[in-house]
């Protein structure tokens, strides 16, 4: 067994609470990224679908990611009525996805930590939802504020709260299901 094998097996044992890392092995810089990536993608996709539905109902599919991308990435004035720009949609989608993966990394690592402390999964789900919802809402609100994007009746705090609630439910549910499966496997 080489050092890579030791590192992988001990990191896995450490994550699942069955041991600790020996002093010769370096811990992974981000041991939860593998679990966080799909959770973040699900959260970002949930918001994207929610936003696409709202934009489509208003007769402007992709208007929101296009306007946000144009403003945040290219410095244009925020305008939901502007023509859809594929570069703005693509760039904003990548940035949006990255934000959700970062939030998911926090949620997954918190779940592992709380599980090791013996906190019941139901309470973890509640804390996970609340943390994700507030964290995402504050992050997005701060980003909008820094970019000078006004909260209007058409694009306001209610819409942000609803879309982040959808994402938080999707992400917390996925983390909860993964934790439940891991606990069942550990019990065997």
Helix fraction?
over 70%
What is the residue-mean pLDDT, rounded to a whole number? Answer: 83
Number of helices: 6
| Major sheet summary line | none
Low-confidence regions:
1-24
Structural class by SSE content: mainly alpha
Structural features:
188 residues; elongated; 6 helices; mainly alpha; disordered N terminus
What does this structure look like?
By secondary structure, the chain is mainly α. It has two domains: 1-31, no CATH class; 32-187, no CATH class. Helix content is 74%, strand content 0%. The protein is built from six helices and no strands. The protein has helices spanning 3-15, 33-57, 63-74, 86-116, 121-147, 157-187. The radius of gyration is 19 Å and the shape is elongated. The chain starts with a helix and ends with a helix.
In short:
The chain has helices at 3-15, 33-57, 63-74, 86-116, 121-147, 157-187. The chain contains six helices and no strands.
């Amino acid at each position: 067994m080489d050092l890579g094998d030791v590192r992988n097996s001990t990191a896995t044992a450490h994550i699942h609470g069955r041991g600790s890392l020996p002093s010769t092995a370096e811990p992974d810089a981000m041991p939860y990224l593998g679990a966080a990536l799909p959770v973040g993608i699900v959260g970002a996709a949930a918001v994207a679908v929610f936003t696409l539905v709202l934009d489509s109902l208003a007769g402007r599919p992709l208007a929101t990611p296009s306007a946000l991308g144009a403003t945040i990435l290219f410095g244009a004035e925020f305008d939901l009525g502007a023509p859809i720009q594929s570069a703005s949609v693509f760039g904003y989608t990548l940035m949006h996805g990255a934000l959700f993966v970062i939030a998911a990394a926090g949620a997954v690592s918190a779940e592992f930590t709380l599980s090791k402390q013996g906190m019941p999964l139901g309470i973890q789900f509640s804390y996970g939802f609340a943390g994700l919802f507030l964290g995402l809402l504050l992050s997005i609100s701060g980003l909008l504020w820094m970019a000078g994007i006004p909260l209007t009746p058409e694009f306001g705090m209610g819409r942000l709260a609803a879309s982040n609630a959808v994402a938080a439910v999707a992400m917390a549910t996925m983390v909860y299901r993964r934790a439940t499966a891991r606990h069942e496997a550990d019990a065997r």
